[in-house]
Design brief:
493 residues; two-stranded antiparallel ribbon; five-stranded mixed sheet; 22 helices; alpha/beta; 2 domains
């Protein structure tokens, strides 16, 4: 055991650094617009599963439709776990819990990379992923896409790095596939990959493959039925409606800022996902991924297969995707693993100049990413790479702080004003009213109508979508790298 820890000591050091970072920064991150409903609904989840029929019906009469596990299709096992651990209900604690669980993303990219290379240089994968501002920035306050991402990685690691004929293996695999598919329907691409892998497996007979597929799919469906109240009563009908809704997604029908114009989700161009991946993923990862196609293609065929299935899934089914690519954020760690394996191959090259030049490129790129990381903190998820131009330029073409997490800082600014104000201050937020109220600490009141406000908090995207009839002066801006994420305006009365 000690020998294994010693061999992986660089990852142990990385892990300690990650948890120290989490403890030092968890209070910095603002509430996002997805958190309230997820944690609130999650708090009902376990109560619902463990209640009698009469208790469930009584509970349903007291909660909203979005919180009702029987009526709303979202799978909220993870938010329920966070709510259970966060017994005080502080959002800051939720962010710390998310950061702790988010560590699993770095663990599994390391394990997958090590399984493919058997090299201590596998530490490159979690380091690159950590310094990817776009991915790291989602971890503290994204209770859906990040849990889906590390669960997706866990499933990949499980069936790529373990081989077994035992029934228990396929039961566990079915549960993992069920969890990923329930959180995001695109997780079902893993089942497609699994079926293809089993059918092409020459070490098993056709009959054996069918039995393994049957065991995996049966355990997946059984686990879903036991843990997902929404599909109770009519599993086939409810699952069918979820598949149909994955492209329609009637629960979300808003404008998307894309290349400087407002478009609807239905009018997304076919290359929407690819375009965003190219401008949101650090150049270091993109170059490494392209290089891996040349130097490590055979070793990475399973991961390339998973990526291809997901892109085909996106192009054919056109599943819901908005707020840039957060629904496909899980692809970033997979691409990072491919990129890292490619770099490791070059670093181990016996020609002197190849590993030396590769090391210089990696160090310079990581230094640049570290600078970006620090400059954007705590809003790292608004990151765009050099292909998009400056962040200021990107802010007029794409939505930056789409979750309004910077409203925390704006609310704190108004709270300081309220301390010396001779009269009560009223604030109108363009978005995230519950978050602004949370950070008010009762120092000011939040109103629903802009005409009643002394101050309002807004951002570029919401300014485009709303028209204010009142005169105002901008008195404070939350800025990063020349771009305004949100602003505070004082109304002129």
């Amino acid at each position: 055991m000690l020998a294994k820890i010693k061999y992986h000591k660089m990852f142990v050091v990385f892990s300690l650094g990650y948890f120290c970072f989490s403890l030092l920064t968890y209070k910095d991150y603002g509430i996002t617009s997805d958190e309230e409903v997820n944690y609130r609904a999650g708090s009902y989840y376990f109560r619902f599963l463990m209640s009698s029929h009469s208790e469930r019906e009584s509970l349903r009469q007291r909660i909203s439709e979005k919180d009702d596990p029987l009526n709303f299709p979202h799978y909220r096992l993870y938010p329920a776990l966070v709510s259970l651990l966060n017994f005080k209900g502080y959002y800051e604690w939720s962010h710390l819990i998310n950061l702790v669980f988010g560590f699993l993303s770095f663990l599994f990219v390391y394990l997958i990379t090590y399984a493919l290379t058997k090299s201590r240089l596998s530490i490159l994968s979690p380091i690159i992923l950590f310094l990817n501002p776009h991915y790291l920035g989602h971890i503290p306050a994204n209770p859906k896409d990040i849990p889906f991402s590390w669960m997706y990685l866990a499933t990949i690691y499980f069936f790529l790095c373990y081989t077994s004929r035992k029934v228990a293996f396929y039961i566990y695999l079915g549960i993992l596939i069920a969890l990923t598919s329930a959180i995001r329907l695109v997780g079902s691409a893993l089942f497609v990959f699994f079926v293809l892998k089993m059918m092409l497996d020459k070490s098993s007979t056709f009959k054996q493959s069918l039995v393994m597929i049957f065991i995996t799919s049966t355990s997946a469906l059984l686990f879903l039925y036991l843990t997902w109240p929404y599909i109770w009563g009519d599993p086939i009908g409810k699952l069918s409606s979820l598949i149909a809704n994955s492209s329609d997604f009637s629960y979300w029908d808003r404008s998307i800022l894309y290349k400087g114009i407002l478009i609807t989700k239905a009018s997304r161009p076919w290359d929407y996902l690819i375009h965003y991946l190219v401008i949101k993923t650090p150049i270091l990862i993109l170059v490494g991924f392209l290089g891996s196609l040349v130097v490590s293609a055979k070793k990475l065929l399973p991961l390339y297969g998973i990526l291809l299935i997901n892109f085909a899934f996106y192009l054919i089914i056109q599943p819901v995707i908005y707020n840039e690519i957060r629904h496909f954020l899980f692809l970033i760690p997979v691409i990072t693993v491919c990129s890292s394996v490619g770099y490791i191959k070059l670093l181990k090259n016996k020609r002197f100049l190849v590993p030396s030049l590769t090391a210089v490129v990696i160090l310079l790129s990581l230094t640049k990413l570290t600078v970006d990381f620090v400059q954007l903190h705590p809003y790292q998820y608004v990151y765009f790479n050099e292909l998009a131009g400056s962040l200021e330029r990107a802010s007029k073409a794409y939505e930056l702080d789409y979750w309004s997490s910077s409203y925390k800082e704006s609310a704190e600014y108004i709270r300081n004003i309220a301390k010396t104000s001779p009269y009560p201050i009223k604030v109108y937020p363009c978005n995230l009213a519950f978050g602004v109220d949370y950070y008010s600490y009762k120092g000011f009141s939040v109103v629903n109508k802009s005409v009643e406000a002394d101050y309002y908090i807004c951002d570029y995207m919401n300014t485009l979508k709303r028209s204010f009839s009142l005169e105002s002066d901008i008195v404070y801006e939350i800025r990063r790298k020349g771009a305004t994420l949100s602003y505070v305006a004082k109304t002129i009365k």
